Amino acid sequence: MSGRVVKFATDQDKTVLMGNFEKRGWVQVSPEEDWNFYWSSVQTTRNIFNVDTGYRLQDDQVINHFPNHYELTRKDLMVKNIKRYRKELDKEGSPLAEKDENGKYIHLDFIPVTFLLPADYNLFVEEFRKNPSSTWIMKPTGKARGIGIFLINKLSQLKKWSRDSRTSSFQAPSAKDAYVIAKYIDNPLLIGGKKFDLRIYVLVTTYRPLKCYIYKLGFCRFCTVKYSANVNELDNMFIHLTNVSIQKHGEEYNAQHGGKWTVHNLRLYLEGTRGKEVTDKLFDEMNWVIVHSLKAMANVMANDRHCFECYGYDIIIDDNLKPWLIEVNASPSLTSTTANDRIMKYNLINDSLNIVMPNGEPPDVRWNKIPAKEFYGNYELLYDEELAQADSLERDSKSRLAGGQGFGTRGRDAKSKSQATWK
């Protein structure tokens, strides 16, 4: 098998991709020819898996999206799936679904209070009236790069925006526009007075059983203007939205570093200002958020063995050092804004390909998708369901022998020595 050359197809002409394919000596073919590896846009993936076209992938073909990746990457569906996951765990009586005296999830409270509009309009109004001075952020469900986002703190602003303000019902400006409205995190952790969020890359090679890897070289994206919760500044997106596609138009934008910090720098900064213990806890909680957001998708995702996905997670940390999952991107930008950015993204693709296609040989989707550790590069194994299950069986039997020591507060204080990840 090793004598065969990998044939790749792509509909994205990005230097970080092409450079990686060429370095491996892969040969480009057109999508109509026999390819082994396809780096495609989400739209192309949809066409390939379209029931009507009846495309059947072979054992030596791999593609970079799951057929219905949008279950996680569309803002409304992500929220719906996470809410469903919490309910299911609740029904099973799982300790993960434990709630506090106010009925809030203790362990699974990692997305801001969110409603879908127009469907949940009345529920939203009810929630808004409980706390009428709160700020909410409106986002179109299917758009990216900060397009169409705005903030409100009065119901009248929503009514005005709605197409038919004369009725009590709510209609989006155009029939096909669904929006999510989420409680705005108005106490973000600030560094140098500025708001930022984290972009963390997560590679999923299979959903059932779940196997995912986290990239160590994520980064923070900073706003160019100091944060202000002043209601007069609600329209100033340079204060509120970290998207580079927005910030790069700001007067304060620095093209040298692109308003970015590495996650490693963030960690050092937090250890210096808040201490190592709380910083470790924060990073552990971010891992927790990522794994449970993926577990929430496991039953709805079409777990096609020809697929893998490199997601871009957007997380905001509030000033209590609590991480909030804001959204997940199916096609995180591979455009580079700075030289460091280009090197990082080149390495991200390189390391992703090494895990998905170890040895750079034509793939065989029948193998069990655990590459040797030397292929990880800057990835770390975040969660491997099979190892975790084996692990918990072993722990159960040990705890029975030891007189039943159960899980810790969050069922994840036992970091096993094996590489099953944390629980």
TrEMBL record:
Claim: Transcription is one of the keywords in the record: no
Subcellular location: Cytoplasm, Cytoskeleton, Cilium basal body
Annotated GO CC locations: ciliary basal body; microtubule
Pfam families hit by this protein: TTL
Signal sequence range: none
Catalytic activity field: (L-glutamyl)(n)-gamma-L-glutamyl-L-glutamyl-[protein] + L-glutamate + ATP = (L-glutamyl)(n+1)-gamma-L-glutamyl-L-glutamyl-[protein] + ADP + phosphate + H(+)
Top-level taxon of origin: Eukaryota
SUPFAM superfamilies tied to this protein: Glutathione synthetase ATP-binding domain-like (SSF56059)
PROSITE patterns on file: TTL (PS51221)
Region listing for Disordered, in residue ranges: 394-423
Gene3D superfamilies: ATP-grasp fold, B domain
Keywords for the protein's UniProt record, in alphabetical order: ATP-binding, Cell projection, Cilium, Cytoplasm, Cytoskeleton, Ligase, Microtubule, Nucleotide-binding
Listed GO biological process terms: microtubule cytoskeleton organization
Ligase recorded as keyword: yes
Single GO MF descriptor: ATP binding
Quaternary assembly: Part of the neuronal tubulin polyglutamylase complex which contains TPGS1, TPGS2, TTLL1, LRRC49 and NICN1. Interacts with PCM1, CSTPP1 and LRRC49.
Family label: Belongs to the tubulin polyglutamylase family.
Protein name: Polyglutamylase complex subunit TTLL1
Annotated source species: Acanthaster planci (Crown-of-thorns starfish)
Name of encoding gene: LOC110987362
